[in-house]
ethanolamine-phosphate cytidylyltransferase (Argiope bruennichi), 294 residues
Amino acid sequence: MNGQTPEGNGYSMSESSNNGNREQPTRVWCDGCYDMVHFGHANQLRQAKAMGDYLIVGIHTDEEITRHKGPPVFTEQERYKMVRAVKWVDEVVEGAPYITTIETLDKYNCDFCVHADDITLDADGKDTYRYVKAAGRYKECKRTAGVSTTDLVGRMLLLTKQHHNRGEREYGIDTEHAKTISKDPSTHSPWTGISQFLPTTQKIIQFSEGKEPKPGDRIVYVAGAFDLFHVGHVDFLEKAKAEGDYLIVGLHTDPVVNRYKGSNYPIMNLHERVLSVLACKYVNEVVIGAPYAT
C-alpha cells in the first residue's frame, strides 16, 4: 500500500494481489458520525482522498452514535445526504459500525483507514480504531483547528458574535456591541471556543474546483448566507445546478447577514462559510462578499 501525505494532491496505486503486473486504485476508508457536516469534516475527507484514488465513507446510525457518545443533532438520513454531497466522496456506506475493524476494510476492499489526529473512544473508553491500528492499516490526517460540531452548538447557545469577521465599522456596526450579546459568565462553557478561523489562499485553492466555465455553458448564480451548511442548502444547490452547467454561489459578508438576520447570525463567519460551500460537489465557484442586491 502506498499513500501520499495528507496534504498531497496526486494519486497513489497499490499492486493487485492477483496480478503483480497490474496496478489497482488505492481504496481509502473513512468513518464517523459526520454530524452537522462542516468544512472541518470536508477537509478531513479531502486529505483522505489525496492518499488514494477512491474514497469510501462509512456513517454511523443514530442508534450507534447515541449508544457510544449521545444523540446526534441530525438524523442518519440527513447525514448520509450531506456526506454524499462532499466533492471528494466517491461512495457512502450507511450504518457503518462505530468500531472500525479489519473485516470492515476487507468487506469494501479498502487498503487502509484514515482518521484525523485526535482520539475517538467507544462507550467502554477504548480507541475505536485499535484494530486497524494494530494491523498497520491506519493513517492520520491533520484535524482542522478552530471548528467542531461542539463548537458550533456552543456558538448557537452562547449567542456570541466574536467569530464574525473584523471590519464591522466599515458597514456602520458598533464592534463593541457586536462582540457578544450575553455577558453572563454562567452561559460560557469551557468546552467551546470562539473561532477566529482565517483560511490561507492555499486552503481556498485546495477546496476550489479551479475550472472556468466552457464556451456555451449556461451559468447559474445564487446568493445568500449559507450559514451552518445543511441538507436544505444541498437540496437547493442541487436544483440550482440542474438549471445550467456552471453554478456560482455568492456569499454575503458577516455584517450584511447580521443586518438582515439579526441576533448572533451568522453562526459561521464568512471564511468558514466559503469553505463549506466550496466543498459541495454542485458548486463550481464562490463569490466572496457578494452584494445583497443583485
The CA atoms of residues 251 and 288 lie 5 Å apart.
